[in-house]
Amino acid sequence: MFSSRFHWDFHPNRLTELLAEKRHASVPILDLTESNPTHAGLHYPPDLMRAFDDPRALVYEPSPTGSVDARQVVARTPDVDPQRILLTASTSEAYAYLFKLLANPGDNVLVPRPSYPLFDYLATMESISVRQYPLVYHGEWSIDLEGLTAAIDERTRAIVVVHPNNPTGSYLKRSELDALVRLCRDRQLALISDEVFFDYDFAPDPHRAGTIAAVTGCLAFAMSGLSKIAGLPQMKLGWIVVNGPEELRREAFEKLEWIADTYLSVSTPVQCAARALLQAGEQVQMQIRERCATHLSLAREALAGSPANILNVEGGWYITVQAPRVRSEEEWALQLLARENVLVQPGFFYDFDSEAFLVLSLLTAPEIFSEGIARLRRQLDGA
């Protein structure tokens, strides 16, 4: 009766089961996986909702690409032409639009490994598949370009990069971007860049690539949205910036407009409020940047001299802790939850290809993060 898209195992894993038991017993959990800014104890401007006190929100004037005013607002640099921006309800919807645009059923797109586990779901919902290319770590993360090239087959339609990646926090480098643009141009592939964490770097780097919105050597799409930029995931506004050779870019944008016109999912109120939301979001973004930097320093200090190692991270909201291989990362996560009431994510959630990695959110409320890290250290020392 139901679509074959739903091929996943919906049974809860061991960590989920244990967490449910703890919460059912009302055990206080130190959640070091919290990535929802609205649950992280941040301070939002008290007059934020006044942004929706706009009479224009009562008038429905549908535009597939989004209103001119809203697109001008999200064109955040002089180099981005608002006419190359298409609004979506989220970056997840942006992926769906792009997969519809670029791929037929049975085609595939390349995605990084490790990375956020949503790609398989998004691709399968569009009747396409993902092929993974490796990110490798040698003191810092980089793309294995040979491995990426080997992953391309006759049904590959696009290469997805996450800039910076989640959870490794690694940005694309200039040399990597140059290689990807050449490869996409030569193989007639599109380059898709998820840049939701782009503003959250920990330090400048002259080797870091800029936004893919500036790429002209191949068909390229850069995505972002209010969810991360302004810490407002509930406001549901994302966008795609389309770039590349003019003829390809124009055709891609025209077809995206047709797709968007089919759904018209972006609400009028959030478009009218976009300017005020982004302005208010600057205060939230500053808090997030400060908290993540503080927690990164705290974690490095707390775990210094322990059997664990924090992998090099350039930006984003997460850190990856490499724990001793005396037990699997799943067992590490289960032990932390069972003995210390501390919740972390095991690396296999993000398709790390070896053991034993634990992923922690730097966004966690300060009192929870500091105590959770202390308990993590205690378990590491007892390993």
Folded structure, characterized:
The protein is of the alpha/beta class and 383 residues long. It has two domains: 14-43 and 282-381, Aspartate Aminotransferase, domain 1; 48-277, Aspartate Aminotransferase, domain 2 (3-Layer(aba) Sandwich). It contains twelve helices and 14 strands. The strands form three sheets. It has an eight-stranded mixed sheet, with helices on both faces. Helix 1 packs parallel to helix 11 (329-340), helix 3 packs across helix 8 and helix 10 packs parallel to helix 12 (366-381). The N and C termini lie far apart (49 Å). 42% of the residues are buried. The model has no long low-confidence stretch (mean pLDDT 96).
Quickly describe the structure.
The protein is an alpha/beta fold.
Spell out the helices and strands N to C: HEHEHEHEEHEHEEHEHHHEEHEEEH
- The CATH class of the largest domain is Alpha Beta
Percent helix, as a range, is 25-40%
Counting structural domains, the number is 2
Report the sheet with the most strands, covering strand number, pairing sense and barrel closure: 8 strands, mixed
Global morphology: globular
CATH homologous superfamily grouping of the largest domain: Type I PLP-dependent aspartate aminotransferase-like (Major domain)
Total of helices: 12
Proportion of beta-strand residues: 15-25%
Q: Mean of residue pLDDT?
A: 96
Radius of gyration, in angstroms, nearest whole number: 21 Å
Number of beta strands: 14
**Second-tier CATH architecture of the largest domain:** 3-Layer(aba) Sandwich
Q: What spatial order of strands do you see in the largest sheet?
A: 2-9-8-7-6-3-4-5
Terminal Cα separation, in Å? 49 Å
